[in-house]
Write a structure and sequence with these properties.
The structure is a single chain. By secondary structure, this protein is α+β, with helices and mostly antiparallel strands. The chain has 3 domains: 8-108, Butyryl-Coa Dehydrogenase, subunit A, domain 1 (Orthogonal Bundle); 114-220, Butyryl-CoA Dehydrogenase, subunit A, domain 2 (Beta Barrel), CATH 2.40.110.10; 225-367, Butyryl-CoA Dehydrogenase, subunit A, domain 3. Helix content is 54%, strand content 15%. It has 11 helices and 10 strands. It has helices at 8-33, 38-46, 49-53, 60-73, 75-94, 97-108, 223-259, 271-299, 305-330, 341-351, 358-367; strands at 114-117, 133-137, 140-151, 158-164, 173-179, 185-187, 201-212, 216-217, 261-262, 265-266. Strands 1-4-5-8 form a 4-stranded mixed β-sheet. A 4-stranded antiparallel β-sheet has the order 2-3-7-6, with no helix packed on it. α7 packs antiparallel against α8 (271-299). It binds flavin-adenine dinucleotide. Flavin-adenine dinucleotide is lined by residues 115-119, 124-125, 149-151, 193, 201, 350, 353-354, 357, 359-360, 363.
Amino acid sequence: MTVTELAGAALLDEVVRLTRDELRPSADAAEEAKEFPRELVRRLCELGLVRLGLPESRSGLVFCRAIETLASGWLAVAESVHLQVLAAVGPARFGGTHVRDDVLPTMLSGAVIGGNCFSEPNAGSDLSHLETTAVLDGDRYRLNGEKSWVGHANVGGVFNVYCRTAGGGLGGITCLLVDADSPGLSVHRPVRKMGVRALPTATITFTDVLVPRDRVIGRPNRGMLVASDVFVQGRIGLAACAVGLAQGALEYAVAYAKKRIQFGQPVIQFQGVSFLLADMATQIQAARQLLHYAVTRRDAGHDVSVEAAQAKLFSTDVAMRVTTDAVQVLGAYGYTQDSPAERWMREAKLLQIIEGTNQIQRAAIAARL
Ligand SMILES: Cc1cc2nc3c(=O)[nH]c(=O)nc-3n(C[C@H](O)[C@H](O)[C@H](O)COP(=O)(O)OP(=O)(O)OC[C@H]3O[C@@H](n4cnc5c(N)ncnc54)[C@H](O)[C@@H]3O)c2cc1C
């Protein structure tokens, strides 16, 4: 494996440097051009970030701080690293020898980009209606169906595909690790999104794709066990993205409010503006603490499905409010594409929808009350 792992503080220093020197300066142009920052993502994986994000590394706090920093500079890059972790969660914990020895190292190093395929045209929040099927044919599965909204679809080399292998409901679902260059697999053109355009999202269709049995992640018909680990990690990683995005917007708004003069003084001197900024800072700090509480408990070995849902729900709602208020602080300039604030506001909206919508997070929390 070629991963060079820098320990905690040194790694975070490098992430701060990369965010300042490379992410922030290139984000606007790459988002406009819809260009996936392949090289940047590979370098971040090589630093050891993907391995660090895996639950078994028990380094959740360092990972969250790294993702927060990246997201404060460019959400698409933070989300891409987060997606790479999500793609590796199942193979790392539930993969067989071939998957763990031959495929996982390429995902950890960033040599191969990965993705997760849950959603389908008729199954979004409700995965009990998955229609993609895999039928055992000798020592291979024959996979047929269509997966929607696959992050990394157009740049990925390997995908965790959740498909039906028995019965109905959530019981008969299996997770298969499928190579992107498998005959019969076809990736559609990227969907035209409101934001995070540098990270491609697309439909993938599977027509008689043959997948060897040793690519089953976990056990046949027990795919939802794998998925539940992915869901918790998804909520944690996405909450870190939200905290970072909001922090970047706050810092930008504060700097602007200190230099924009109206009525003979910087606008931050007006209580209407400074209280808005104070509320933004307070909400971000609350979101960060909720997230850090969840990962600290998880690193200590606790089940944090509720805490992770609370962190995802709260931090993404905070990111939406804070980015909206950042536009307000910037006034007319905030409403133009010459400022990054309108992009951040568009990006924040995504975070309330993916990794389980915020309605689904509320339902999950309520179910455990
Ligand atoms: C940019 C982007 C990237 C994505 N990446 C991936 C990916 O990599 N892999 C993947 O598998 N999927 C991905 N998704 C899909 C995402 O996970 C789904 O959009 C999400 O799960 C919601 O499903 P849906 O859009 O079909 O909404 P629906 O399930 O159709 O929901 C519609 C509305 O009804 C609400 N609703 C539904 N059920 C309930 C309920 N029980 N209680 C209360 N409200 C409810 C929802 O909150 C929502 O507001 C991505 C989506 C986007 C936009």
